[in-house]
Each structure stands twice: as C-alpha cells, then as structure tokens.
Amino acid sequence: MGLINNSRAKSPWVVHFDCGSCNGCDIEVLACLTPLYDIERFGILNIGNPKHADVLLVTGTVNPRNERVLRNVYEQIPEPKVVVAIGACACTGGVFADCYNVIQGVDKIIPVDVYVPGCAARPEAIIDGVVLGLQKFQEKVEKMNKKAVGN
Amino acid sequence: MVVLAIVLGPIIGGLLTGIDRKITARLQGRFGPPIMQPFYDVFKLLGKEKFINNKVQIVYVITYLFFAMLSFVLFVLGQDLIAIIFVLTVGGGAMVMGALSVRSPYSQIGSQREILQMLAYDPLLIITAVAMFMVTGSFKVAEIVNYQIHNNTPLLYVLPLVFIVLIEVLSIKMRKSPFDISAGQHAHQEIVRGVHTEFSGPYLALIEVAHWYELMLALGFVAIFFASNWYIAATLVIVMYLLEIILDNTTARLTWKWMLKSAWGFGIVLCAVNIIALYFI
Amino acid sequence: MLDTLLLILIALPFIAGFICLALKNHSARAVVVVLVSIVLMITSVVLLGQGNFEYTLGGQWNTLITYLDFALLAYIAFQAFYHRKYHSLFAYSAVIFAIASIVMVYYFDFVMAHGIEVEPTFFADQLSIIMVLIISIVGSLICIFGIPYMKDHEHHLHLEITRQPRFFLYLVLFLGAMNGLVLANNIVWLLFFWEITTLCSFMLIGHDKTEIATVNALRAISMNMLGGVGFTAGVMILFSNAHTLSLIDIINSNHAPSLLILPLSLMVFAGLTKAAQVPFQSWLLGAMVAPTPVSALLHSSTMVKAGVYLIVRLAPAYADTWLSTMVAILGGLTFVITSALAVGQSNGKKVLAYSTIANLGLIIACAGINTPLAYAGAIFLIIFHAVSKALLFLCVGTIEHGIGSRDIEDMHGLVDKMPLTAVISVIGMLTMFLPPFGMLIGKWTAMEAASVLPIVLLLMILGSAITIVFWVRWAGILMSTSSKPVKRVIENIAFLTKTPLVVLAALAIILNVIIFQVYNLMISPLAKVYYTKAADTFTQVGNGALVNTVGSFTLWPIFATVIVVILFSIYAVGKAKNSVVTAPYMCGETADNDEDRPRFRAIADGWVDYSHSNYYLNRVFGEEVLTNGSNIISIIAILVMFIVAYMGL
Lengths: 151, 281, 649
Ligand code: SF4
Hints:
The complex is a heterotrimer of chains A (151), B (281) and C (649). Chain A has 151 residues and is an alpha/beta fold. Helix content of chain A is 40%, strand content 16%. Chain A has one domain: 3-Layer(aba) Sandwich (Rossmann fold). A 5-stranded parallel sheet of chain A has the order 2-1-3-4-5, with helices on both faces. The longest helix of chain A has 28 residues. Chain B contains 11 helices and 1 strand. The longest helix of chain B has 32 residues. Chain B is 73% helix and 1% strand. With 281 residues, chain B is mostly helical. Chain C is 71% helix and 4% strand. Chain C contains 25 helices and 9 strands. In chain C, strands 3-4-5 form a 3-stranded antiparallel sheet. Chain C has a 3-stranded antiparallel sheet with strand order 7-8-9, with no helix packed on it. Chains in contact: A-B, A-C, B-C. At the B-C interface, strand 1, helix 3, helix 4, helix 5 and helix 11 of B face helix 19, helix 20, strand 5, helix 23 and strand 6 of C. Strand 1 of chain B pairs parallel with strand 6 of chain C, so a sheet runs across the interface. The site of iron/sulfur cluster has 13 residues of chain A, from helix 2, strand 3 and helix 4.
C-alpha cells in the first residue's frame, strides 16, 4: 500500500476542462507542458480522457449550459481525484461573476480542492496548485478506504 | 528461467520505457520524468478506483496480460517462433475484442485501427521468422541461436533487409510514431485514447505491464539477429531502441493506408528480395 | 458385420430420405430424421472401431450403378433445361455438360471398360473414416438442427403447402451419397456419388424457388458439371493410360507418374470446382441463399470437402511433381484472395462462405505441398474446420431467426439478447483462429510444412494475417454489451436447435484436448503409409507438444495459461462486484436515454445518435476490386497446371 500511495503523488495525470475561459488560463495551462516549465518532471501527463486522470484542471466560468458536462467529466474520473480550479473565473466567476449566465465558481457544481488565483493564473502557480492538490490525495485515500469499509 | 522471465521481463521493460520517456523529453528540450516513472504510473493506477463498463472487459484484459507474458516466456525458453507469434496474436486479439466490447465511439474506432495495425505487422513478423528459418533450418529460437554460435555468422549479415523491415514492425507493434494509429504512447492523443479509452485504473495498469512484456519480446527478436555475440546483440538492441525513439520524435502520424501500403509493399518486397538473395549466397 | 455397417451408412440415408418425402406429417418426419441421425452417429463410431477394411461387391452392382448414373445425369440435364428461363447461359451450359457426361460415360462403360471388375469396391483407411465420422456426426447434427429451423423458415415465408418433405429428402439422402463417396474405391462409383451430391446441391440451393435462388442453383450446377466433365475425362484418360480404376491402385501405384499426371490434373480440377476454389468461388457465394442447414451441411462441412477429399486422397500419387506445386500455389492463392474478400463483407453468411473457401484453399495447398507434415496439416484442418464452421453456420442461422438479420453490424450487443447463441458463436470463432485450437495447429503445421515451398508459405502467411481481421472484429462485436444493467434474458430456443449447437461447441473444444490422441490414432498411420520415403512428419507427439524436424508447438503451456486466465478472470470479475459501472466516455455529453447504447447530447437537450461500424475497407477489399483480377490470375494458374500436367512434369 505504501508503494501505491507514494506512487500516487509521483504520477498525477491531469485532464483539463475548459468551461468557457477567455483562453488566457488555457494558454497558461499548456505553458506548463513546455520545456520551460516541463511538468512531466513531476510525472504529470496531460491526458485527454477523464477515465485515466487523477487531477481535473478547470478553467473559465461555468454556466448552466456546461455545468452538467463538467459534472459528467468529474464523475468519470476514478477516485482518488483532485479538482483544481484555475484562474479567477473558475474560482469565483472572476470579472464575469455578475453576468446573467455565469455561475460564481466551479465549487458550486463540484467539490474543489485547490483554488489557483490569477487572471490569468501563472504557470508556476498552476504547478503549485497541482502539487498542493497531491498532498490532499492522502486524505482522499483515507476517505475512500472508509467508504469501502462502510460498504 | 520461467520465473526469471516473468519477474525480470516487466522490470526491464518498464525501465526501458522510462528511459524512452527521458530521452523523448530530452529530444524535446525538456528535463523529463524520472526513469522510474512508468512504475509509479502503474502502481498509482493499481490503487485507483475500479471503473468498468462491463465485466467482459476484465476477462479480455487478463487474457491480454497472460498471453503477452506467455509469448515472452516461450521466447525465453527458446520455443518455436511461429508458435510464439500465434500466442502473441491471442493477446492482441483480446485487446481488440475488449475495446470492441464497449459501445463507445472512441474505443470502437480505436479497435478497428488496432486491427489494421495487427494486419500490418503480423505477416511481417512471421516472414521474419521464416527468413530466420531459411538460414538456420529451424523455427525454434534455441536452434536459431545455436546455429549462429556454431557457425559464428550472425543473422544480421545475411538478413540485413529483413532487419530493416523489423524496424518498421517494431514501430507498428510498439505503437510508435509514425504508426501510432490505434492508441498513442505516453501523452499522445489518438481519437481520445484509441483502444485504451475505456480501460482505466487497475486494468490500464495491467495493459501497461502486458505492453512491457511485448516490448521485451520485440527486442528479443532484434537480439537474436546477432546471437553469436551477446555483447553486440545488446548493443544492437540499444541502437535499435534509440532509433525507434528518434523515429518516434521526428515523424508525424501516418494514415492507416500508408501504414498498410508500406508494410505490405515495402516490407514484403524487401523480405522477399532478401530471401531470394539467400539462394545465391 | 461390415456389410451391415456399409448398408446403414450408405443405403439407410437414401431410404430414410424417401420416407421423409412420403411423410406429410411434421412430427413423424422429425422422428425419422432424429432416429436416422442417431443411428448414423453410432454406426460411424462403430466403423471407427472396425478400423481399415476393403469390401467388394459383385459385378451386377457395377451395371446397376452405370444405369443409375445415366438416369442421374439425364435428370440433371432435365432439371437444368426446365429452369432455363432464369438464366439461359448457366442452364444451357449445365445441359451441355450433362449430355457430354452421358456420352462420355456411355463410351467409357460400354466401349472402353466394358465388364471391368474393380476390386475392392469400397475401402477405408483413416482418411475415409475421418470423413465418415464428420459426415455422420456433424452432418446428422445439422439435419437435426434443420427440423425446427425449416419450420421457422417456412413460417417466415408464409408457405401454404409445406415443402419440407422434398427438403429432407435431399438433405438426408445427401449423407448417404457423401458416405459412399468417401468410402468408394472404384472410381466409377466415386463419380456416381459425386454427381449425386451435385444434384443435391442444386436442388437444395434452389429450394426456396425464388428467382435468385434458382439462378444461383443453376450457377452452381453448371460449374459443378464442368468439374464432372473434367472428372469423367480424367477417368477415361486414366483408364487408357494406366488401365486401372481403383483408387488404392493409383495411390500406391508403381505406374510411371507421367502416365498418371494428366488424368490426375483433371481430377484435381474437378476437386477445385467442387471446393469452389477461385475462380469458381461465385457458386458457393450464391449458394448462401439456401436455408442455413444447407449452407452448413453441403457448403461448409461436407460437400465442398468432397473436392478437398479427392485432392488430398490423390495427393500421394502426384507427390514430387510440378502438378503438386501448382496445386499448392492454387490453394494458397485461393486462401489469400478469399480471406481478403471476406474482410470486405458485412453479411455474416458471406463472411463464413469466403472463409470456408479460404480454408479449403489452405487444405488444398497442404495437399500440394505433399509431405507427411503437410498431409497431417491437411487432415487437422479438415477435421477442425468441419466442426467449427458447421457450428458457426448454425449459429448464424439461429441469430438470423432471432434478430431477423444476418448482417454483422446488426449483431452489436447480441450477448444481451441471445446470450447462449452469442457465447457459442464466439467459441466457434475463437476456435477458428486462436491457439490452442485445432484450426491454428493445422495452420501452424501447414506453415512449417510449407517451408519447403516459400511462395506458398508467403501466401499462407498473408492469408492467415487477413483471417484474423474478420474473426476478431466479429467476435468482439457479439460480446459488446451495454454499460447499463441489462435484464438477464433466458434464451428461448427450441430443444432441437440448442442441442446441435451445444454438442458441436463441446466437440470443437473437446477435440482440441484430445488432439494428440487424434493425431496418433488417425493421422500418423496415414502419413506413414502414403509417404514411405520421407520421414519429416511430427517426430514426437505427446507430452503436450507437437514436435517436427523444423520446429515444435508446445501446447500445454497454452492450456495452462488458458486455465490461469479463466481462474483469474473468475476471481477478478468476482472482486469487481463493487466497482463503479460507468457509461463510456462521450466528451461529457452523454445523453440519458433508454437505448442500450449511449448517445451524444445535442441542441435543446435533445440527443444525436452516432454511428460506428467496422471498417470493411471496401476500396481495398471489396468484391468489385478483387474479383476480376483474382479470377484472371487463378485461371492462368489453372492453365499452367494443365500445361504442366500435359507435359507430364
Ligand atoms: S481568469 Fe482571467 S485569464 Fe483566466 S479565464 Fe478568466 S478572464 Fe481569462
């Protein structure tokens, strides 16, 4: 079990979901993959399929049209999983918070573990966010085990 | 021997994959993950929640794993090459059927493309075995190795063209660019994740391990081209592997038609030329 | 004892056939068919215990056969002429061929070989006995399957008056004809039974009396009669050259091969037409319009095997000749071409038909390679192909009645609707192309034997790679299931449908377990008798391995792995009870619906369907693309074969 738990922190695969970002934050997420930041150093891979992912990166504002898509993607990630909300928009709605069609924050829809502020969030901050999220894996695993015992 | 093969196979295979990722990263000007990264990935996947679409899937994954293992073990034991390739087919077939068993558009497409990959590499692999038979007079790995040791003539000298074809076969089998048409390696995307789309968590981990066995088998094929001297054989394997990685990073994905044409056209013609040439040497 | 056995195996089906014709009551007919089937099965097993034998019938029987032959050919000519308005070319050519046969048989029987006695009339070695077992066991099971099938079939067609008596006449009678064919030693008798099977095939293909059925029946008979003419000519030349009509004599002959080669090539040609080898594949494809039991019995497991039987039977006689090489190449060509054609088909029965032709081609290629090892491979393939393919045809028939379609694309998720049939079909398919099943052992043997003939080996390799394509995807589709919890259905199929399916599936598996015994008991003596000088057959069999001089196939690790996989699967599936069952990944846009397959959500909360299908690659593997070219190639190859034979090489 120790081996598996150690490995969790060393191989977080992320899936990136863009709720309706201005693309500012998206660009920064992708910047993390570039040679300059190279998140693969930490074993992080950008995966296109939630079923393979451990970390969900959400950028942009959620709205009533895409909220269920977000929820579906979230549900298709197997436990243990961590959600990182990236950018002001994802955290609170940001500059669009007052729009008639905007939900103020991803956490209104799915549980969020880490909030990465910024407009746009800097790559360093994003990487920090993911690493912070990894620390939460431990709690998640415990919760998961408890659930399993409960069953 | 058997136990050794079963245990060491995936360990070396995993390490090689780690090296592959490291070199790939360096080729792209990145620092890259630790060498042990593939193991972390697999262990992590093992600890994930089990997500399935249906229970048949599980059976297919297990079939894939054990038959990949069996084909490698048979190889190490020096068994009949054609029999080994047939056993390998079982694993490949199970993978395809597993992907087909889910009514997901992505895994369905992926499986069709995987079938095409099998169609492309399978005959070439058998022809390679036949070419080896033509020289050594036996289909058995042990005999092929013995022949080279006795006569001190590595197969590579007499079968250079077949060896070139083997490069392509390995690219297809290992799903390396330009032939990664059914599922990408590492973080490459291919219509989501091709055949692997609907496998997750522990099952994906098993697939990864099976893949390591297959990698080892493929490199074994390379090694017996120079069985008269194991040091050179090892060098040959390393060079071949590096070549694959460089190819992977310098080429773009081709369409399936290209793959079939090059495998059946280029591959078979080269092998045929080489085999005909054997009669004149 | 022996005469009783022969009587039961050959004459009983004829008698039972006519009883079926006379019986108007469905259940009475069913009882007759089932009884005859059981008797045949038991008798064939007794014959197996009896072992090899020879048996001679008196001269008056020969005369009887001669007259019956005239009657038969005349009836064929009449039938073809009667249906001429459907397709005049096929009909008139069949009439011409039939009349030509009559003239030739007349000349032969009354001028050339008048009063010739051939001893023995019947003989059996292991090959004959294997064929008898296949015909009597697999064939009988198919006849039993036919009882409920035809009832359903006529129900679908809304027939007022049942035409089943006629159907079962030909179906049951056919078994007798086939048994006679494989046991005959006198070639004239063999030819007679040969023509009976041709007639049965014609009658059964055209059974539904639709226009397309009749046209296809005419196509079949014209091609088969062409083969018959070739056969008759072969017999005549054989007699004038070597003055013998006895099969045993030809095979063990001390005649100079050059005298035999031309007649042998004509007989091989007859075999090629009967086995529907390219360029004659179209008749077998057309024959798929017939009700499924017919396809299973005549056009996959037995009648087409008659052609193969003849070629394999005669193989030792033309060993080490150029003719043999040409036969191997022709078989190999057919194997590749028809395998490729099968990839382009989505019609399940057509896939089976093409795959049947392909496997027959493989067997013929083995015969052409003509070494003990190849001979063993051929017989492996004959046995395992008969069982698996008959099973698959019956499965497709059952599926067709269950879901109303024989298209592979309609079989997605069949395991939810017809679990038993789907699982049995998948077993049948896996036995066709995966180790440790017999078909693959046969293929492996064939390949290692072909190592003496690289060009044929290349054809085999390509063909076997293509084969995987259509089996894997078909088997995969059958087992695809919905990720929603499905209601467990108990399949409601008739007892007489289920029994043959289950028995054949069991046979397909059990035969693999006893493959070594089969080899030691049936195959290895044959190879030893017919190939005295060469010794490169399996040098050692048993201990879970087949070993020959160039390689070895250790089977026990595969069986062990299969068992491990099964145990592990049971464990893992059991553990997966609590795991989460999710819908497939649909980019987060899975729409809720009651269908068994997911859909994408669309505008205004509606949904859109997506469609996916297998790649049939029609621009590469389509019939239009491949047929012409391959026909030309194979016609050229056949011509070369004749030229080679004419030159006596
Ligand atoms: S936080 Fe700023 S940069 Fe990021 S999506 Fe919102 S508006 Fe764009």
